[in-house]
Backbone:
């Protein structure tokens, strides 16, 4: 306990699933956390559960004005933002031939633009206060391809690339930017696409023979948000049970 003492964090998509796991882990390590999500009921419930160290705000990551409000509010309530977990994202399946353009654009706006706007919004605060840590959620689909995830994968490859560029641009301000690449994690976002059957199929592709859970991912965010990772910048870290190390990836 105490690995994030004195730090103010924003976690997007923090109301449920992987995001909620990150929020809980941050609070457990003494961070003050703004839970930013479009899921109002779930977000407020989580904030109420965690007490004074957590605060919920309704937030659309694709809206620059919403980002400005979230960062300003976090600075005022808890002190200067020093950690941003750009966790919000959506998953849609569809082939190159058949996927509707509006679905492609939605993926881009939430996953890629949302990540960009988040970085842009927190940089002035982090620069003015000696640095910070930005953790961008990509995916194993940002490391390799899989059928019917071309549009989704494009956003996750983009996040990987933006992370690399931003790590060079912002490093001189002691702002570290890293990307996290989860494999199949058992969350509401993934379960909606097949339930238990999807989880079982996903587990069969993993060398550890199980899918991940939010509790498997959250400790990596704690590490990257803490001063323990002060010399890690521009890294891409897979947390996938070994999928990307095998020929099963993309199968």
Residues:
């Amino acid at each position: 306990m105490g690995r994030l003492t004195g730090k103010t964090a924003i976690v997007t998509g923090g109301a449920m699933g992987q995001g909620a796991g990150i929020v809980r882990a941050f609070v457990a390590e003494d961070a003050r956390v703004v839970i930013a999500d479009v899921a109002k009921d779930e977000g407020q419930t989580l904030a109420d559960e965690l007490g004074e160290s957590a605060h919920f705000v309704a937030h659309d990551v694709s809206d620059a004005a919403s980002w400005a409000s979230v960062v300003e509010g976090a600075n005022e309530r808890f002190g200067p933002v020093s950690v941003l977990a750009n966790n919000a994202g959506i998953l849609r399946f569809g082939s190159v031939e058949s996927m509707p353009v509006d679905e492609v654009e939605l993926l881009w706006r939430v996953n890629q633009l949302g990540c960009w706007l988040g970085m842009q919004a927190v940089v002035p605060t982090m620069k003015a206060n000696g640095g910070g840590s930005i953790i961008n959620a990509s995916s194993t689909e940002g490391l390799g391809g899989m059928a019917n995830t071309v549009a989704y994968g494009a956003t996750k490859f983009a996040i990987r690339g933006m992370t690399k560029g931003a790590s060079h641009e912002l490093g001189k301000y002691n702002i570290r930017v890293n990307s996290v690449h989860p494999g199949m994690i058992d969350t509401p976002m993934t379960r909606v696409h097949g339930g238990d059957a999807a989880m079982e199929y996903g587990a069969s592709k993993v060398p550890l023979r199980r899918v991940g859970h939010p509790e498997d991912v959250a400790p990596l965010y704690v590490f990257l948000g803490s001063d323990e990772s002060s010399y890690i910048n521009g890294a891409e870290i897979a947390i996938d049970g070994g999928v990307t190390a095998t020929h099963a990836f993309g199968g």
Notes: The first strand starts at residue 8 and ends at 12. The mean pLDDT is 92. The chain has eight helices and seven strands.
